[in-house]
Design goal:
This protein is mainly beta. The protein has a single domain, classed as Lipocalin (Beta Barrel), CATH 2.40.128. The chain has 3 helices and 13 strands; from the N terminus they run ββαβαβββββββαβββ. It is globular and about 40 Å long.
């Protein structure tokens, strides 16, 4: 529910401000899931995702601070991925992909991602690749990834993660209605 005040009567302009019971943003929605783990599946049909589709996929909303939430993403026994969501001072949200090796060392292809364009609201957000990511993808010889946009949305029943660029679509959906056992910590993330 939003509280609106009619301003400048006769001109039909209204100013609205969120009320205390306004819809949560993505960080709030993730924080509400903190400590829980959920199983998912690949729901896109790109043959390049066959390895992911054949594995057990589990997310663990592991560490929640006021403005930062860390979500390890396990693919079978591979615990190399952590999504890091950070609320920005201007109201935007940043998504970074922290990739580690089993010994905890940072992968060469890590900390890529993007941030919302302007302030973010609601629980469905798009994260176009930022300049750091574009430079990293160029340096690592994967220029097609410079066009990446990641999308994350949370509904009452699902956490949905997508990657989109021309000629590429990946989508995984995680069932939020049935928490699963917490997996081991992501590689390099044991200290949290």
């Amino acid at each position: 529910m939003r509280i609106c005040v009619l301003a400048l009567a006769g001109f039909g302009l209204a100013a609205c401000s969120p009320s205390e019971d306004s819809a949560p943003d993505l960080i709030d929605a993730l924080t509400a899931l903190c400590g829980q783990s959920f199983e998912g599946q690949v729901t896109s049909d790109d043959p390049r995702d066959a390895d992911f589709a054949s594995q057990q996929l589990v997310i663990h909303v592991r560490a929640c601070e006021a403005d930062v939430v860390r979500v390890p993403f396990h693919v079978g026994e591979d615990r190399s991925r952590v999504w890091v969501f950070t609320r920005q001072a201007d109201g935007g949200v940043e998504l970074k992909h922290n990739h580690r090796h089993e010994d905890g060392e940072q992968d060469a292809l890590s900390m890529y991602g993007g941030r919302t364009v302007g302030a973010a609201s609601g629980t469905a957000l798009d994260f176009p690749a930022d300049q750091f990511s574009k430079d990293l993808f160029e340096r690592e010889g994967i220029p097609d990834s410079m066009q990446n946009t990641w999308s994350v949305s949370i509904t009452d029943t699902a956490y949905i993660y997508e990657l989109n660029r021309p000629n590429r679509h990946f989508r995984a959906e995680f069932d939020l209605t049935t928490p699963v056992d917490t997996p081991p910590a992501a590689w390099g993330d044991e200290e949290l």
